[in-house]
Write a structure and sequence with these properties.
- This protein has about 450 residues and is α/β, with parallel strands linked by helices.
- About 35% of the residues lie in helices and about 20% in strands.
- α5 links the parallel β5 and β6.
- The N and C termini lie far apart (about 50 Å).
- The structure holds iron/sulfur cluster (SF4).
C-alpha cells in the first residue's frame, strides 16, 4: 500500500521551492502527496519565522495534529524550515508528539530521518549549517521535477545583510551564489520541458555573484538567461534596493522578456529609521532608483514591503513613509506591524510603539495604498493585455487563469490547449487580488 504525506508550506518562494524538493525526495522512499491530512502517514510543516504571525500559525497547526497522533501512534509528524532551524531540538521538547525536526540546510537528510522514525521509532533533529562547498554540491537541479508553465529557479541562498529586524541570515545562513553555468543548464532543461516563464529567486538576487570574483554579476546573468530559447518571460525576486545597480536597471530597457514588475522592498520611508534598520540606503537613494527604473521602463509597476512601528518610529517618520507611498504609487504593498524576532539586532531595542499606535499608522497607510492600488489596476479595464496562460481557474469549470506582465492573475473562459501560450485577453473587471478578462 502506498504511503502518503501531507505537506503545508508557510512563507516565501524559497519555502515553496524547498517544498517541491521535499516532495521529490519523499517520492524516492515511496511517499505520495495527499491533500487529506486525516489519512496521511506523514505530516510535515515547512515553516517560516520571518513574521511573528506565521510562527504562531505553525504552533497552532501542530496542536491540531495531536488528536491524529493519539488515534494513530504510527503517524509521523515533522517540522522543517525556519522555525525548525531557529528552535532545533527545543521543538521536540516543547511538542512531545513531534517526531522530527529538519533545518534549512538539511532537507536532503529527510528521507533518512523518516526511515529512521519508521523503523526505530526514534525522534530526530538535524539543524547544523553546512559549509559553502557542501551546500553547492547538494544544490538540487530542479529541471528533473517536471510540469508547469512557470517555475522558480533558486540562484542564491542565505543572506549577509543582517537588516536589524530580520531573522533570515540567522536561519538561512550566509549568502552563497550558485554557479551561473548550472543555472543556465537548469533553465535550458526547463525550456526543453515547455516551461515558458522563470523567476530567479534568492533572498537578495541583486547581490548575486558579489562574493565570488570569478562569477558574473546578476545583470550579466539576466542577459544570459534571456538568451535561452523558449523562455518567453523572465522575473526575479527579491531585490535589495542598495544592490540595485545602474547596470541592473539598464536590463529593463535591454531585455524585452523581462517582465514589467519589480518587488523592491523599501521597509520604511524615513532615513533615520532606515539607518536603524541597517538597510544601507536613504529615502532619497531609494527614490532616485525608482526614478531611474521608470526611465528605463516607463510602464514598470512596483510592489514593496513596509514595516510599521519599528522601535523609535516617530509620527514624522510615519508621515515620511506615508508620503513615500503616495509618491511611488506602488501597484501593491505588503504592510506588516513590527514585532521583534528573537536573536536579531532590533530585538535588543525597546519595542516602544504601542499596539494602538502601530494599528493607527498601519490603517492610514493601508487606506492610502488601497486607493492607489484600485486606481492602478482599474486602469487596465478595457485594455487588451498579453496573458501567459498557466492552468485551470479554481472558481468555475471551463475557466483558465494566467498572468499579465505585471504579475496580476487574470481569470477568463478558454480551452485547455491554450495552457502554456501567451494570449490576448481584454480586462473586463479588476478585483482585489486578480482580474477578470475575456479572450479575444
Ligand atoms: S536583505 Fe535584509 S530583509 Fe532581506 S533577507 Fe537579508 S537581512 Fe532579511
Amino acid at each position: 500500500m502506498n504511503k502518503t504525506f501531507f505537506l503545508e508550506t508557510f512563507g516565501c518562494q524559497m519555502n515553496v521551492v524547498d517544498s517541491e524538493r521535499i516532495c521529490h525526495l519523499l517520492a524516492e522512499i515511496g511517499y505520495y502527496r495527499t491533500e487529506h491530512v486525516d489519512n496521511a502517514n506523514l505530516i510535515l510543516l515547512n515553516t517560516c519565522s520571518v513574521r511573528d504571525k506565521a510562527e504562531r500559525k505553525v504552533y497552532g497547526h501542530l496542536g491540531s495534529f495531536k488528536p491524529l497522533k493519539s488515534a494513530n501512534p504510527e503517524l509521523i509528524i515533522g517540522v522543517g524550515g525556519c522555525v525548525a532551524q531557529q528552535e532545533g531540538e527545543q521543538l521536540l521538547t516543547n511538542i512531545p508528539f513531534l517526531d522530527l525536526v529538519f533545518g534549512t540546510h538539511n532537507i536532503h537528510k529527510l528521507p533518512a530521518m523518516v526511515t529512521a522514525v519508521e523503523q526505530d521509532r526514534v525522534r530526530c533533529h538535524e539543524t547544523d549549517f553546512l559549509d559553502r562547498e557542501t551546500r553547492l554540491q547538494l544544490w538540487p537541479n530542479r529541471a528533473d521535477i517536471s510540469g508547469g508553465v512557470t517555475r522558480f529557479v533558486t540562484i542564491m541562498q542565505g543572506c549577509d545583510n543582517f537588516c536589524s529586524f530580520c531573522i533570515v541570515p540567522h536561519v538561512r545562513g550566509r549568502e552563497i551564489s550558485r554557479p551561473s553555468t548550472e543555472i543556465i543548464r537548469e533553465i535550458e532543461g526547463l525550456a526543453a520541458q515547455g516551461v515558458k516563464e522563470v523567476t530567479l529567486i534568492g533572498q537578495n538576487v541583486n547581490s548575486y555573484g558579489g562574493k565570488d570574483e570569478t562569477e558574473i554579476s546578476f545583470a550579466e546573468l539576466l542577459r544570459k538567461v534571456a538568451l535561452v530559447e523558449g523562455i518567453e518571460r523572465l522575473r526575479f525576486t527579491t531585490s535589495h534596493p542598495k544592490d540595485l545597480s545602474d547596470d541592473l536597471i539598464a536590463t529593463f530597457s535591454e531585455i524585452d522578456t523581462l517582465c514589467n514588475h519589480l518587488h523592491l522592498p523599501v521597509q520604511c520611508g524615513s532615513s533615520p529609521i532606515l539607518k536603524r534598520m541597517n538597510r544601507g540606503y536613504t529615502r532619497e537613494d531609494y527614490l532616485k532608483k525608482v526614478a531611474k527604473l521608470r526611465q528605463a521602463r516607463p510602464d514598470i509597476r512596483l510592489t514593496s514591503d513596509i514595516i510599521v512601528g519599528f522601535p523609535g518610529e516617530t509620527k514624522e517618520d510615519a508621515a515620511a513613509t506615508l508620503s513615500l507611498i503616495e509618491q511611488v504609487r506602488y501597484a501593491d504593498l505588503y504592510l506588516f506591524q513590527y514585532s521583534p524576532r528573537p536573536g536579531t539586532a532590533a530585538a535588543a531595542l525597546v519595542d516602544d510603539i504601542s499596539k494602538a499606535v502601530k494599528q493607527e499608522r498601519f490603517d492610514r497607510m493601508l487606506a492610502m495604498q488601497r486607493t492607489i492600488s484600485q486606481e492602478v489596476w482599474n486602469a487596465d479595464v478595457g485594455t487588451t493585455l498579453p496573458v501567459l496562460v498557466e492552468g485551470h481557474g479554481r472558481q468555475k469549470s471551463g475557466q483558465l487563469f494566467g498572468r499579465t506582465t505585471w504579475n496580476r492573475i487574470v481569470n477568463f473562459t478558454g480551452d485547455d490547449p491554450l495552457i502554456g501560450s501567451v494570449q490576448p485577453v481584454r480586462i473586463i473587471k479588476s478585483l482585489k487580488n486578480s482580474q477578470l478578462g475575456e479572450l479575444l
